[in-house]
Structures are given as C-alpha cells and as structure tokens.
Amino acid sequence: MNRQDGKYRKKIYASQFKDVSDEQVIFDLFLLTSVKYNSNTRGVKWLEVKLQDNTGFISGRIWADKIRSEYETMAGKPVFVKGTVNYYAGRPEITIEMLRVVKDGEFDLSEFCRMVEPTAVSKYIDLMRSMVSKIENGLLRDFVGHILTEETLQEMSTLPVDLHGHHNYRGGLLEHTFEVSWGAFFQTQATGPVRRYPVNKDLVSAGALLHDIDVIDRIMHNGYGYREKAFHGLIGSLPLYDILTAARAEAKLPDNLFAHLLHIIEASHENGVAKTAEAMAVRSANLLSIEYNRLEDTLWSCKTESGDCVWSRTMEREVYRFGKEKQDGDTDTPENSEAH
After folding, report:
1. Whole-model pTM?
2. pLDDT in tens, 276-328
3. CA angle, corner 135, sides to 133 and 141, nearest 5?
C-alpha cells in the first residue's frame, strides 16, 4: 500500500488473491461490505466479513480473540485490513488481525467499487432531462417531471439496479435507465411510422424513464455499500405504487394514461407480459440492456482478450470477445476513429 496526492492506494486487488501464496501477510485497503457473527458446534466464535474492491470480493475471518466491538459499526466503510492469507476448500480468505477505518479524503472510491464515470453520469442526466422535455403530452410530462427531479436523478447516479444482478455497481441505475429510455425511444422512431398504427412515443418515453424508479426506495445506502430494505420481499412493489400514485395526484394524470403507463412498467421486466406496442418497445429495450450488461460484466470480470471464450454464469452459456479493449498508452488513429 502506498500514498499519492494525500490518498492511500491499493497494492493488491481481490481478483489477484488466487495468485497469493498461503500464509502471506497483507496490509491493504478494502470496502467492508458486511460483518456478521458466526460459530460452530464446539462454541468457537468468529466474525465473518466480506471485503470488496473494484475487481470483486474476498472473505475474511476475525477470530474471537481479535474481535473489537467497533468492528460491527464499520460495515459500508473503507478500511485498512491487516491479516494473513489462508486457503479454505481451495479458496483464499484473509485471517484478519486488525481493521481500521480510512478517513474521508484519504481514499479514491473508484478503487473500492465499480462505478459509472462522472462524465458519463453528466451526459446521461442531460439526455434524460431532454427526453422528459420532449414528451408532448403536458400531463404526462408533468407526471414524469414530478418523479424525475434533480435530486432523484442525482440519487440514481449513486445506486445500482440490483445488489447481485445486472448493473450492480454505483450509478448502474442511472446508466440502465438511460439505456432503456434511449433504446426504446429510437425503436419507436424506426418502427412506429411503418406499423399499421403509430406507437405512442410519449408513453414509451415515460414508461422507459420510470420502469425501475422503485429502486430508490428498495435499495438503501449503507455507508459506501448498499443493502436491500427488509420489507421489499414481503410486500413486493409497494414502493413503486407509492411513487406513481403520489405523482399521479400531483399531475392529475387521467385514468387511461395511468393504466397504460402502469402496464408498460409492469411488463418491462423479465417476468412481465407485454400486451401493447408501447409495452413491447420498453420491454425489449430493457431486456437488451440487461443481456448486454451481463455479457459486458462477464468479459470485464474475466479480463478476457480477443479470441477468449469464457463461461458466463449469469447468462448460462459461453461468451466470446471478438475485439480487444484499447490498452493503456494506445492512441486513436484516423483509421481507428473511422472504424468506430
């Protein structure tokens, strides 16, 4: 671990532990995502912790004689970790001797978690604002505007869509919402005029922009990490209905528009059934964004290069990288620019 520009920098990442030898001592930084007590039938107790950086996770154990009361309050915070690497069932873990919180300003968050680039965040927010402004139906535009406030857009830029599924990184909710909205919008531009009847582009834009809005009331911040609200599994989509009905009362959205919009949102997800052209447009854009993100996540996490074929657990099939990502030091040439 070293320090540059007043910030501590990591030396070893979670993805590299498979190459670390047994009994090697480490002292490095990680995001502490969870802490829980555990014990066996012999009464031996320990703290089981999960540590994260922007390449993945690694587990750790703190045996009873090393446990400190403050460790339970550290979940969601970047920490210094001192310990020894041990292998259990062939997998590396860290037997931890000490945890200490890293002070604000002394770390770079991008080292601890995968996140959407700030420049991309600004672009997504600007384009989503533009999409809202182009909704021609004034009542529907006001309805969406009541929900997608500046505060909500900024919150979306800090949240994942899912803790363990697609777009499961900081800013994933904003990125995915943009992808679905932009994809559905252009799909209606390309297909609507040649259909037997025109697609209602306002409903498509509104449904796409709001299809995952309940995430902001379903996933909670836990320091720099996240946790899901306990009630979500018990009462399903209640946060979604609360958000939509509150905005409906403010914007005075008519029953027919609200019913169509609700169907688009409900049908957009993987277990939904689309019964209108508008719902089909949003659903197809949503599924494309999910599928592509699962592919991207597999290739990113496996660090594959051109010609590599790897198994994707989330897609349940082999995937293949045709091209190769630009390496550090590469520069765009006129030929490369034209190829893109």
Report:
1. 0.82
2. 999 999 999 999 999 999 888 777 667 666 777 777 766 677 877 776 555 55
3. 80
